[in-house]
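Researcher: Please translate sequence to structure tokens.
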Amino acid sequence: MENLLRPLIVVGGSVVLTLFIGWATDRLLCKADRSHPETPLWGLLRRGRIPYQLVLCAAMLRGSFDQAELLQEHKVGIGRTLTLVLIGAAAWLVIRIAAAVVETSYSRYARAHRDPARVRRVRTQVTLIMRVVAAVVGVVAAAAMLLTFPAFRAAGASLLASAGILGIVAGVAAQSTLSNMFAGLQIAFGDMVRIGDTVVVDGEWGTVEEITLTFLTVRTWDERRITMPVSYFTSKPFENWSRGTPQMTGIVYWHLDHSAPLEAMREKLRDILRECPAWDGRAYGLDVTDTTPNTMQVRALVTAKDADDIWTARVTVREGMIRWLFEEHPYALPRVNTADALLPPGRSNGRPFPDGVAPRQRRAHESPRGADR
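Model: Translation complete:
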């Protein structure tokens, strides 16, 4: 009877005590969350209740398993398994706690600062910091798990003896990966590009959606995702439309006939922009920037508060001006000239006449006797 009750008390007691402590801790966190609604820390800490209970249960079972006297022939294997579960659950719990603290700090910063650019910069840094913390904790946990096996301890000692050669080999093999990791840290703390920035890379316009230690994802305007290594942004030029002030100046071009009414077009541009919500009212203008034998190039300048509004203002101005010209001044639209060219005196199809007199003029000057014949 004692052999049956002892393992039941040890194992059952550990599980019941774990559930009770986990429930009590969760209730305390809920109460703290209701008492302090200004900070999301206590609510975020509740995400770690599962690894928290795993740590408690694994620690209790690992400490009391010898007293249970259960499965003695597998005592070493069970003890090592509980140790591995304890290490993994502890690493999981540390990551959840770190994430809660970091997200709380970011939310407080976002509430205190109204500058979107600074908030996006901190968000990018916080995201990369969390990835670094998770990677470091994962590596440490994996190393701790390996050290629980005696065979790996001997292997580790032999590897340390040849650490110099292995370091050189690993450095050469992981050169691109390490460069991307350092580029990711440079992007995070160098404020080169942030999550939410509007960028133009390789001729593609989009918004930075995700930044990791090794790659960066850009969501284009047509909802495609472009994934590229972060080292691209530290080695090649790119356009960042969100860096500094988000205000932008847009350009609209038309190719029109030389008879286009420029003054009327300037007035119409002003009327179109006054009815366009995307125009911020800072500036506008219309000028002739180039000419060809058949047309002239007319450029309009408009301003807006950000990249999305500048796109809306440009298409509105382009469509409105073309429609107005078609309805009110159709002669101003470009056309192909089909009229006969005016020839200079004394030339026919680019060739001079033999005596300098055109055929009609020659017939008019012929003598009456020649005409009678």
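Researcher: Any highlights?
Model: The two ends are 152 Å apart (CA to CA).
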